[in-house]
Amino acid sequence: MTAxxxxxxxxxxxxxxxxxxxxxxxxxxxxxxxxxxxxxxxVHDVGAVKFPVDYEKSIGNYVVDADENVLLDVYSQIATIPxxxxxxxxxxxxxxxxxxxxxxxxxxxxxxxxxxxxxMVQEGAIDFAPxxxxxxxxxxxxxxxxxxxxxLAMLYRFNNLPRANGTYTDEENASCMNNSxxxxxxxxxxxxxxxxxxxxxxxLSTTRSKPIHKLGMPAFNxxxxxxxxxxxPLEKHTAENEAEENRCIRQVEQILSSHHCPIAACxxxxxxxxxxxxxxxxxxxxxxxxxxNKHNVLFIVDxxxxxxxxxxxxxxxxxxxxxxxxxxxxxxxxxxxAGVYYHDEKLRPHAYQHFNTWMGDPxxxxxxxxxxxxxxxxxxxxxVKVVGxxxxxxxxxxxxxxxxxxxxxxxKGKGTFIAWDCESPAARDTFVARMKMNGINVGGCGVxxxxxxxxxxxxxxxxxxxxxKINELI
Length: 474
Fold this sequence. Notes:
Layout: H1 31-41, E1 62-64, E2 70-73, H2 76-79, H3 88-94, H4 97-104, H5 117-124, E3 135-139, H6 142-159, H7 170-176, E4 188-192, H8 201-204, H9 211-214, E5 224-225, H10 238-258, E6 263-268, H11 282-294, E7 298-302, E8 328-331, E9 338-342, H12 362-377, H13 380-401, E10 407-410, E11 418-421, H14 425-437, E12 440-441, E13 443-445, E14 449-452, H15 460-473
Parallel strand pairs: 2-12, 4-5, 4-6, 6-7, 7-8
Antiparallel strand pairs: 1-2, 3-9, 8-9, 10-11, 11-14, 13-14
């Protein structure tokens, strides 16, 4: 199904969207969806599947399942759909010769990039890079991006060790083949409690959100610091929250000063997402950067879930107004591509120290370019700010109306990146299930949190549908 846009004056971005959600079956998935899952299970794991989707019929902010149930999607494929299902601009881009060539002749970019790769990277990443970032490494997923950031940090440290002749010693070359020092030195990455940075080996060692991610897997002996546990509403707990953030900074200082091996980098999410949508103040991140600089530890900002406009800024860490850019910024999800931004050319390792066959995908660079074109042409960052303010203010009123049901509401001034806590994990799970049966697809995170992750084309009339259902079902 296709759609056509109208103007930016507040009218619908997708005029032929459904007027609202509709659920026809007594369960979601219904009979056809369950049959589809059984079919898929014969060839692929379906253990985490919520429901099969009819992508041809999904449109704008609405996802359609195999039973033709229509749900307002306020979770957007775990925060990955930026500008709506079957976006007409992206559909036209997909039909272009540029996209067709990239799809048919996918290059091994590390060895054989297309002759126009510089332009493609410029238009598909650098033109909308976070302030101060000059270079990019494309990768395949957010987990990959974080793994690469860790590698760059460790190689930066290792390659700049003093050596008599500026090359690697015989001992380093021999020992690394046995996974031992000095060629394979013990080096660490600092992360925060409740963080999520992916499920690959390095990224998994910095993920701290749920045991299910880590059980049974070997892990690096890397440290973690507490992430601030703020009290809400923020304006009523200023002193306590400042003390909590200072406590966490002191803990970071203590770890950096006393850990048993060198720490090459520290990674942090602007808003801890999988771990419960946990926030910290701008001042906390200023103090964190200053502490890392003091100890010559590289600063990695994980914008996998927060990047590309979800907080009302293209990049969530822009809200902080840091004095200098982070050393690296990782991205994925709404970007529809993945990778690492960096600005110091010394972070670029020697040939083949970081390498894989694909080194990204030109097709995704093209897609990212058109996603950002939509964001700019339709003024979607402003849309996210306006709708986010309306949604947050309305949820504050619902919290007053339903005491104990909407707790620790957070995300004020952060676009539609909004969350709250239910009374218990069971209450959260029940609420998510009831919302789905009433045509609203929302997501949970942390222990008992509801997180909203609408698309950038989510407008006030969608928010009103969502709010009415919350009021009815909370």
